[in-house]
């Protein structure tokens, strides 16, 4: 794998997504809107996305640009995360539609969170069923942003988990990237890169987000990253991000976040809304950018 670091190579990675009904694949069809009588799902793709050729620039900056392209192509993965004291795991879709299905780490009957585009479902536990007359899920949306755009519930959490956003920050102007070395990770060898930035620069690099989303992301990162924010990124032999760690210092604390990415572009990953009969519509809620 050391040769990969030094040689200019062009490789095409074929990422296959099956056409199974109800499986995730980042389809172009929108999620089912709130109030629909049928559950919404992130459907499977109808075509197999092909990964872009790796750039011949194998400098740290060039490799991280290649990783950004690789993760844009992957579109989805299973994530296992720890954000401060909060932890959870489940499938995440970041392109072309956003979807998330998270089981929080905790008691066996811990609350779950599902986000399908602009609709969220929270519950799946005994406490919710007791509160809602036997129904296990509460469905809700969030208010539009100041410009009138429909917002994604728990966008703050999704932005902290999104690997493409992390790599956008890692390759932004002014970010200082360095190759740390090759390391063993599970059953393979990965390349470890380190980038120094700040919470403000991390958020500013997300030009695809609305201003409200960027402000929320900065607010989420600032307590432990306003002074300095270090990104450690581990890439596999396809330049895909398999591990992300954020550490830093801020005016009111320290950052210590970790996200693992597995089953990249997995054909069987899905994020499916619960059955309508097991759901209560609770209308519009306010969700803080700091909500986990």
Write the topology of this structure:
Elements: H1 2-6, H2 60-74, E1 76-83, E2 86-93, E3 99-104, E4 112-116, E5 119-123, H3 126-131, E6 137-142, H4 155-161, H5 163-170, E7 176-185, E8 188-197, H6 199-204, H7 211-225, E9 228-235, E10 241-250, E11 253-262, E12 279-285
Helix pairs in contact: 2-5, 4-7
Query: What's the end-to-end separation, in Å?
Result: 37 Å
Mean pLDDT: 84
Fraction of residues in H or I helices: 10-25%
SS-derived structural category = alpha+beta
Put simply, the count of helices is 7
Assign an overall shape: globular
List how many beta strands DSSP finds. 12
Supply Rg: 19 Å
Give a short account of the largest sheet: 12 strands, mixed
Q: Reading side by side through the largest sheet, how are the strands ordered?
A: 7-8-9-10-11-1-2-3-4-5-6-12
What amount of the residues lies in strands?
A: 25-35%
Order of helices and strands: HHEEEEEHEHHEEHHEEEE
Pick out the low-confidence regions.
1-39, 44-48
Question: What is the gist of this entry?
Answer:
Helices cover 21% and strands 32% of the residues. The chain has helices at residues 2-6, 60-74, 126-131, 155-161, 163-170, 199-204, 211-225; strands at 76-83, 86-93, 99-104, 112-116, 119-123, 137-142, 176-185, 188-197, 228-235, 241-250, 253-262, 279-285.
